[in-house]
Design brief:
Blueprint: H1 7-23, E1 32-38, E2 41-44, E3 52-53, E4 59-60, E5 65-68, E6 73-78, E7 82-86, E8 91-93, E9 101-103, E10 107-110, E11 147-151, E12 155-157, E13 164-168, E14 175-181, E15 184-191, E16 195-196, E17 210-218, E18 223-225, E19 229-233, H2 236-252, H3 260-273, H4 276-289, H5 295-307, H6 310-326
Parallel strand pairs: 12-19
Antiparallel strand pairs: 1-4, 1-6, 2-3, 2-5, 5-8, 6-7, 7-10, 8-9, 11-13, 13-16, 14-15, 14-17, 17-18, 17-19
């Protein structure tokens, strides 16, 4: 059970740190985190008298209570490594000393110890800011770039045949994608559209090596080039380890494959492994499922800051602040 509890501090500290970013809250001993909810779900603090609406990422502590309505359901990740799902018209009392008290009985899914290997000790670089204005200094030096790379962007990647994507503020008939190693240009390909799969006729990248890439837009007079971004392919051993862990996670949560539960676990795992682009994809999925939740956007803001995409970091924080304001 000791190893089974490793995932919980990872997820809970991530959510606590994000909420501290927006609200300046102080950490406490979090016992459970809401990772999935459908319909109206409410919770009450131990010292509180009224129930308030819950959201994805809500942290629960000793003595707190959760309840569901007639057409709702909620899943929580507990510090003992259990996922507990409470159905309609249910209630749950949170305790760190004994199994949660639920009415009616809840469905419990255990996170295996093998799944939790090497995913403890996550520390996210959080910006303790409360408004977008305070983040003004984070903006990119060149905010007028016509072409901006989106993926891969300053991250580790799992595959040695990655796909590439970018955005453009102006229209270009053709784009030239350039890939470099430390030895110089590897290949240059001309495409239409703003994404490209790895060229089938080019040699696969080397596991464990770092690369740089940029994109040129063909203009009427001159080509416009984006800034270059770096990415690193995982080593063969690490790539296999990640694939094995992904398979275990997906097998354990296969009955909720489209839920926030799966995206939450995968997202936390990817962050710990340095697979920040994969983590961004998971939390983007969470934000689309939980459209009223602020925490996915706060975590995305932190992830974009980590990869160096300051404008996207501000954009996500703006979304979080707007959602928080709507709840006032």
């Amino acid at each position: 059970m000791k190893s089974q509890a490793k995932l919980f501090p990872l997820v809970c500290s991530m959510f606590l740190s994000a909420s501290m970013t927006l609200y300046g809250q102080q950490p406490d001993q979090c016992l459970a985190v809401i990772t999935e909810l459908k319909g109206e779900v409410h919770f009450k603090k131990a010292a509180g008298t009224e129930f308030t609406k819950a959201a994805w990422g809500s942290q629960l502590f000793q003595g707190d209570q959760v309840r569901t309505s007639a057409n709702s359901e909620v899943s929580l990740l507990f510090s003992n490594g259990n996922f507990v799902t409470l159905g309609p018209d249910g209630s749950m009392a949170i305790s760190g000393k004994k199994p949660p008290e639920t009415k009616p009985d809840a469905n419990v899914k255990n996170i295996s110890s093998a799944m939790l290997v090497n995913i403890s000790g996550l520390t996210l670089k959080k910006q303790n800011k409360k408004d977008v204005g305070a983040l003004a200094g984070l903006r990119s030096a060149d905010t007028e770039q016509s072409i901006e790379l989106t993926s891969p962007y300053n991250t580790l990647i799992k595959t040695n045949r990655p796909s590439f994507s970018w955005t453009a503020k102006e229209f270009y008939d053709k784009y030239i994608v350039n890939l470099y190693s430390s030895k110089g240009l590897i290949w240059s390909k001309k495409v239409s559209g703003n994404k490209m799969n790895y060229p089938e006729n080019e040699k696969e990248l080397v596991f464990g090596e770092s690369y740089f890439w940029n994109v040129e837009g063909e203009g009427l007079v001159d080509n416009v080039k984006s800034a270059s971004q770096k990415f690193t392919v995982l080593s063969p051993q690490k790539s296999k380890e990640v694939a094995d862990q992904e398979a275990m996670i997906m097998s354990t949560l296969k009955d909720v494959s489209e839920s926030s539960n799966l995206h939450s676990v995968l997202g936390a795992y990817y962050i710990n492994q340095g697979l920040l682009q994969d983590a961004i994809n998971e939390f983007q999925a969470i934000s689309k499922i939980n459209i009223d939740a602020t925490l996915p956007h706060e975590i995305l803001s932190s992830l974009y800051t980590d990869v160096g995409n300051k404008d996207k970091a501000i954009e996500e924080l703006q979304k979080a602040l707007a959602l928080a304001k709507n709840k006032e």
